[in-house]
Design brief:
mainly alpha, Tetraspanin, about 0% strand, 10 helices, single chain, about 240 residues, Tetraspanin_animals, Tetraspanin_EC2_sf, elongated, transmembrane
């Protein structure tokens, strides 16, 4: 009976990790394709810092899942105690890292306030500067979410941006692109016209956007943590059951 249970666990673990391996291979393939694509898709992604960062996140996740799936499949089907132990240690490390990230997010939650982001924006945002990571990231956020500043355009008053560009009230990233095309609308926007700019703050825009996915994200996090726990238990049971 014990041998049948061990054999069932072995093949279940192999199938489970085989799907993880396929998922990791797919993410790796997508990430590599975007980086080496000769049709110019890489240039489109590189123009948006959020998308460019996302490509490397996909590559990192794909590599991690690829390695996990490979170790789990080989360790289970070959009944290799060394691979199973390495698989267990890797999942334990990921689990502890996720737990540490959750604890740090709770401890430093005061740094995610509207006032904190407004203060940082006033101190570091430069306007149209693609070489500065902070500035390019904020430009990407304002363009993606059709917003301006943290609470609104007034965040740029008495800021580094106004010192560098005293003739502009808001950066070009705050300007509406679809409704009023042309240089005239951009000039009126940066000079202070409310008609040609986005007046909603990015803090509210981002919160409203992610609020619809908060329950899905929470459920997904619980599912992932549960899978990791079961994977560690299966790996250790199989490790102990191998003679």
């Amino acid at each position: 009976m014990e041998g049948d249970c061990l054999s069932c666990m072995k093949y279940l673990m192999f199938i489970f990790n085989f799907f993880i391996f396929l998922g990791g291979s797919f993410l790796l393939g997508v990430g590599v394709w975007v980086l080496v694509d000769p049709m110019g898709f890489r240039d489109i992604v590189a123009a948006n810092p959020l998308l460019f960062t996302g490509v490397y996140v996909i590559l990192a996740m794909g590599s991690m899942l690829f390695l996990l799936g490979f170790l789990g499949c080989c360790g289970a089907i070959r009944e290799n105690k060394c691979l199973l132990l390495f698989f267990f240690m890797l999942i334990l490390f990921i689990f502890l890292a996720e737990l540490a990230a959750a604890i740090l997010a709770f401890l430093f939650r005061e740094h995610l306030t509207r006032e904190y982001f407004s203060r940082e924006l006033k101190r570091h945002y430069q306007g149209h500067n693609n070489t500065d990571v902070f500035t390019s990231t904020w430009n990407a956020i304002m363009t993606t979410f059709d917003c301006c500043g943290v609470s609104g355009p007034e965040d740029f008053e008495e800021s580094l941006f106004r010192l560098l560009s005293p003739s502009k009230m808001v950066p070009e990233a705050c300007c509406q692109r679809n409704s009023y095309p042309g240089d005239v609308s951009v000039e009126q926007c940066v000079s202070g016209s409310m008609v040609f700019r986005h007046n909603k703050g990015c803090y509210s825009a981002v919160v409203d956007y992610f609020e619809t996915y908060i329950y899905t994200a929470g459920a997904l996090a619980i599912v992932v943590l549960t899978i990791e726990l079961f994977a560690m238990v299966f790996a250790m049971c199989l490790f102990r059951g191998i003679q």
